[in-house]
Design brief:
- The complex is a heterotrimer of chains A (104), B (422) and C (156).
- With 422 residues, chain B is of the alpha+beta class.
- Chain B has one domain.
- Chain B is built from four helices and 23 strands.
- In chain B, strands 7, 8, 9, 10, 11, 12, 13, 14 and 15 form a nine-stranded antiparallel sheet that branches. A seven-stranded antiparallel sheet of chain B has the order 6-5-4-1-23-20-19, with no helix packed on it. A five-stranded antiparallel sheet of chain B has the order 3-2-22-21-18.
- Chain C has helices at residues 14-40, 44-83, 98-104, 140-145; strands at residues 6-7, 113-116, 121-124, 135-138, 149-150.
- Chain C has four helices and five strands; from the N terminus they run E-H-H-H-E-E-E-H-E.
- The chains are: A mainly alpha (104), B alpha+beta (422), C alpha/beta (156).
């Protein structure tokens, strides 16, 4: 249950590691294919599927990983804004109307 | 609304481009391959009754003085031409065209080279030459060619060959598109140094390639009547063996020493498969003899067998395969118990040396005198460094992946802490 | 103050999602096409050409991923600039750390700018046109990037 909760809460990070794992696997399998034949024409399909495909998956993994961090930061900004607004509503501050911008 | 419409448009365009690229990938390579292969069939067969190579190393500028097959039969069939020739020996195009050149210059009639029969569709479709024991014939139609050469003779004090035959044929079946090439060489009564004798060497190679299927290759070699100093022995890829045994004779054996004393060395040549054909196994006998004032002895090499056949059916593709040693079964009739089986052992090295026919240029007997037709690899030549380059590129790809992951981690560690905003 | 429900503003806009999806879809298609085509032909030069196409697909995916990350980074940067002040702008106070000083001396949060779903205008949070409606808040630059124009009634 904890694992499911973790997976649900950290969907993007789980997906990132999954993509990275698949990417590494594709690279390894592709390496065995490339090194297993002496003919360049037979190596090329492995370069595409294992090499380029693995790179694509690694890129997706890195994207999801960084996106997860960005989302965390965005949620922190949400919390900060919420905190500030609640502080403002509690404090005796000038009404928001006095800070209304004048149209240019 | 405007935002969603723009997003939907983006996805729609992406889907269209994706579908288009997949459709192109599925259809274009097959059509290009079919266009390249459609109608381009090829069949080549070549055989020498015995091939003689003579040379002295380090004596003059060239090491090899002669390289000729006697007799020789070669054919080539393709949409461009159908040709064949039988010769004893094949003297080379220079020698063949010399009489005409001399006659043109001197205005005096010079007879053509006599011991060659050539055919080419549509003309001349058939030609035959016969002089005593020499019989040469060649015939060509629009879809097939065949050539047969029979001859023999005394090779001199060092060695001699009795009778030698060579035949080659290649046929294109216009209905099925398949091509069948067959080559056969047969040499009898070879004697070297008065001590080494081979009764008969019979080699055959055949290949049939139908469109859309793998070429069916077959090769065979039968060596019979081998004696050393009158003692019957068997000849296997591992060396000479006594009748009824499989253990090769050691170098200290009197029989092997007898050969060495006469400057005779015998090699077994394993069969070779190429992407489009097969080269039959063979036997190579080297006979050394001293040459006055030469730093090294002269070497006469007699090569038996090595009949070669290649075929590419219409619409068939040239598959790139690693060469495999051909398991040559024990010869059937006509072989004695001594030295009939010449199947290569598992450890016999099979060098990839034989090229496949050049489909881009007509194959004609204009190559080295008496040698096989000059052939070039089908498709792109693949030098060894290409494979290393691709392997190195793959390692670079893997490195790029590691750098991408490392870079992402660096961004995570440093990017958040830096005033990085647009 | 708003009476209606309010949704949390997303980090990435639908346009960003569409762009990322499109480019990665194209990249994946090009890679699949290259993988298929290199096995469909025996011609070495043709195979190399398809490998090049696969590399192009990889570059397309890379471009899409970078644009996605930059869009997210920009949104965070803009929102952070709106919400927080730099420590140098805060008065000296030896007893407080920089973040605390920032919070303590923070002027009121910037005006909330909201929009109704699938609308083409953004409003102040007290604009009568959005009272009682479910809205999504966001900073000015976000609304403008989404293609919305300022409301002519509340003049945000």
């Amino acid at each position: 249950m904890e694992l499911m909760t973790f997976v649900r809460n950290q969907r993007d990070r789980v997906a990132a590691w999954l993509a990275i794992g698949l990417g590494v696997l594709a690279l390894v399998v592709g390496w065995f294919g490339v090194s297993g034949t002496p003919f360049p024409a037979e190596q090329l399909p492995y370069v595409v599927t294992g090499g380029l495909g693995g790179l694509f998956l690694l890129g997706i993994g890195a994207l999801l990983w960084l996106s997860a961090d960005l989302r965390d930061e965005w949620r922190k900004l949400d919390a900060i804004e919420q905190l500030l607004r609640s502080q403002r509503s509690d404090a005796a501050a000038p009404p928001p109307a006095s800070r209304r911008r004048q149209a240019a | 609304m405007r935002v969603m419409t723009r997003a939907a448009r983006l996805v729609a365009w992406a889907g269209l481009i994706s579908a288009l690229s997949i459709a192109v990938a599925v259809t274009v390579p097959r059509r290009v391959a079919a266009a390249a292969d459609g109608g381009v069939y090829s069949g080549v067969a070549s055989a020498d009754g015995v091939r003689l190579i003579y040379g002295v190393k380090g004596f003059v500028i060239v090491d090899t003085f002669a390289d000729l097959g006697a007799p020789t039969a070669q054919v080539s069939v393709s949409p461009i031409e159908s040709v064949g020739f039988a010769s004893l020996p094949y003297p080379g195009e220079t020698a063949l065209s010399a009489p005409g050149l001399v006659s043109g210059q001197t205005q005096a009639p010079v007879p053509d080279y006599p011991l060659i029969a050539r055919s080419q569709y549509p003309s001349p479709e058939k030609q035959s030459v016969g002089q005593g024991p020499v019989k040469l014939s060649s015939e060509s139609t629009d879809s097939s060619s065949s050539a047969t050469a029979v001859g023999g003779g005394d090779g001199g004090e060092a060695a001699s060959v009795g009778t030698a035959k060579a035949s080659a044929s290649s046929v294109h079946d216009e209905k099925t598109g398949s091509v069948t090439s067959i080559a056969m060489s047969d040499a009898e009564a070879f004697t070297a140094g008065g001590v080494f004798h081979i009764g008969r060497v019979l080699a055959s190679a055949s290949v049939t390639d139908a469109p859309g299927s793998e070429p069916k290759r077959k090769s065979d070699l039968a060596v019979t009547g081998v004696t050393i100093a009158g003692q019957t022995v068997g000849l296997t890829p591992a060396g000479f063996v006594l009748p009824g045994t499989t253990t090769p004779l050691p170098d200290s054996s009197p029989l092997v020493k007898a050969l060495a004393d006469h400057g005779i060395t015998v090699h077994y040549l394993a069969a070779e498969e190429t992407p489009t054909g097969v080269i039959a196994p063979g036997i190579e006998v080297e006979v050394e003899h001293p040459v006055p004032t030469a730093p090294q002895p002269g070497v006469a090499t007699y090569r038996f067998g090595r009949a070669a056949a290649f075929a590419t059916g219409a619409g068939g593709t040239a598959h790139i395969e690693a060469p495999q040693p051909v398991a040559v079964p024990s010869s059937g009739s006509g072989s004695s118990s001594a030295a009939a089986a010449v199947a290569p052992s598992a450890g016999t090295p099979v060098p990839y040396a034989a090229p496949a026919p050049d489909l881009s240029a007509p194959v004609s007997p204009t190559a080295a005198p008496g040698g096989p037709v000059e052939m070039k690899p089908v498709g792109a030549s693949i030098p060894q460094w290409d494979r290393s380059w691709i392997t190195a590129s793959y390692l670079l790809i893997a490195l790029a992946g590691a750098i991408a992951l490392g870079g992402a981690q660096l961004i995570r560690l440093l990017g958040v802490r830096m005033p990085w905003s647009s | 103050m708003l009476a209606g429900a309010e949704r949390r503003q997303p980090l990435w806009l639908p346009g960003d999602v569409a762009l990322l999806s499109s480019l990665n879809l194209v990249a994946a298609a090009l890679l699949v096409a290259a993988a298929w085509a290199t096995t469909a032909t025996d011609d070495l030069s043709l195979r190399v050409a398809w490998v090049n196409l696969g590399v192009v697909g990889l570059l397309v995916a890379g471009a899409g991923n970078v644009l996605w990350l930059l869009a997210g980074r920009r949104a965070i940067g803009e929102r952070r600039a709106e919400l927080l002040v730099a420590p140098s702008e805060v008065g000296a106070d030896d007893d407080a750390t920089a973040p605390t000083r920032a919070l303590a001396t923070m002027a009121a949060p910037p005006d909330r700018l909201v929009s109704v779903a699938r609308a083409t205008l953004f409003h102040r949070d007290d604009c009568p046109l959005v009272q009682g409606k479910p809205v999504t808040a966001g900073i000015r630059s976000r609304h403008e990037r989404a293609g919305r124009r300022p409301c002519g009634v509340c003049l945000p």
